[in-house]
Amino acid sequence: MDCNTNIFQDFLSNCNTEIILNALLTPGHPYKWRITDKFGNVYEGTSNADVYGTSLTILLSDLPAGLINSYGGVFALSLYDTTDACKRISFKMTRYYDEVFFDTARGNAVKENLGCTFD
Q1: Which domain holds residue 43?
Q2: Per-residue confidence at 1, pLDDT binned at 50, 70, 90?
Q3: What is the tally of structural domains in the chain?
Q4: Residue 2 lies in a domain
Q5: H/E/C letters for each residue in the chain?
Q6: Is the pLDDT of residue 3 over 70?
Q7: d(CA 90, CA 92)
Q8: Residue 83: is its pLDDT beyond 90?
Q9: Tens digit of pLDDT for each residue in 98-116?
Q10: Contact between 76 and 100 (Cβ < 8 Å)
Q11: What pLDDT, on a 0 to 100 scale, did the predictor assign at position 4?
Q12: 14 CB burial (10 A radius; 0-12, 13-18, 19+)
């Protein structure tokens, strides 16, 4: 991570089936997502932004079973252009960000989204 990176920090609850990134994106456009764990392991996949361009959903079934849990530490999520794997995408949440850092909280709260919804 370089000094110019803009990072949004958030958390998820335990036992979700998906991660919803609430960000302004191109409607229906495919994005390559990359999640890096505390050990530097990198997991990648592709998801499309929703039809309104206000969120992108990553299914936890696309990641190793049990990876996202309350003992997993902090994860980094970034988006890339599907045609250029070296081009990281900045996305708008409360402002423009290059990455989202998140961890998973224990308890009975239900929270599967990173960022707030756009109304």
Answers
A1: 7-114
A2: very low
A3: 1
A4: no
A5: CCCCCCEEEEEEECCCCEEEEECECCCCCEEEEEEECCCCCEEEEEEEECCCCCEEEEEHHHCCCCCCCCCCCCEEEEEEECCCCCCEECEECCCEECEEEEEEECCCCCCCEECCCCC
A6: no
A7: 7
A8: no
A9: 999 999 998 888 899 999 8
A10: yes
A11: 53
A12: middle
Residue 1 lies in a domain: no
The answer to whether residue 34 sits within a structural domain is yes
Which position has the token pair 């990648």?
Answer: 44
Output the domain CATH number for residue 14.
Answer: 2.60.40
Question: 16: which 2 tokens?
Answer: 């979700």
**Confidence (pTM):** 0.89
Query: Would residue 16 count as lying in a domain?
Result: yes
Tokens describing residue 10: 């958030």
